[in-house]
Amino acid sequence: MALIEVLDLSLAFRDKIILNNVSFEINKSERLAIIGGNGSGKSSLGRLIAGWHVNAVSSGNVLFEGRPWKEYSNSERASAIQLVGQIPVQHLSGRAFTVEEEIAFGPENLGLTAHEIRTRVDFAVNATNLGHLLSRSPFSLSGGEQQRLVIAASLALKPQVLVLDEPFTNLDPESRDAMLSVLDGLSSDLTIVLLETNPSLAATLAERFIFLDDSALIADSNAREVLFNSQLVERLGLPAVTNAIVSFLGVDHHLAHRATVPLSSAEFDAFIESLNNVKN
């Protein structure tokens, strides 16, 4: 059984269709990118996946471990899935004086023992490299540090799923790279759903891609198949490294070169190394 099932999901607000009959499954430990332009419906879909606003759907359902979100309490949902948006300050409790207190806030509200809270805080701090910031005020941190803090606070709840809604949008390149490193280092048991408009960033993290356009699911496959979808290329373009190589080689993106053209920085490095090996 899939961890999450999205079943014929439709959502409308007034006369605007936001999601139109969307269906797919998410399996445990997957790293999935839901990619689309602004207004494609991906953020609304992310909130519904995370169990938010489930009473607003026009039709369809979202199941977690075979049960609709409506059957879960708030604490059960918080322990199962966490949603992190692009503006980290909106996710801070406002009740913590230090980074350490912010991370402990969620587990404390679950009524856990002091020992379990300490264990979870230590785990989250180590996962996000925040040990040197524990005594700082959450509101004194940079945007990148705040985003790591929000992810740490989410991890302290030990969710099975982490939904990230354009988490890199307001980060400078250095903070973005640090965040990608943190996410890439998270446990392989954690299911990650990344909502993104940027194919380059999504290709760095995700293995499976869903492409949304005009409120509908257009493609659902591995990264290479989806990122070369003609409709996606027209809307969002290719990942930066892919575009550079395609332009350099002078080939059309529809051609068979797509089987080897790099999609991410790591694949680009391997591609260059292979060229050097051929020369040698």
From TrEMBL:
Family to which the UniProt record says this protein belongs: Belongs to the ABC transporter superfamily.
Location(s), subcellular: Cell inner membrane
One Pfam family here: ABC_tran
Stated name of the protein: ABC transporter ATP-binding protein
Superkingdom field: Bacteria
Single GO cellular component term: ATP-binding cassette (ABC) transporter complex
Record bears the keyword ATP-binding: yes
GO MF assignments: ATP binding; ATP hydrolysis activity; ATPase-coupled transmembrane transporter activity
Chief place of localization: membrane
Keywords: ATP-binding, Nucleotide-binding, Transport
Organism this protein belongs to: Brucella gallinifaecis
InterPro entries recorded: AAA+_ATPase (IPR003593), ABC_transporter-like_ATP-bd (IPR003439), ABC_transporter-like_CS (IPR017871), ABC_transpr_CbiO/EcfA_su (IPR015856), ECF_ABC_transporter_ATP-bd (IPR050095), P-loop_NTPase (IPR027417)
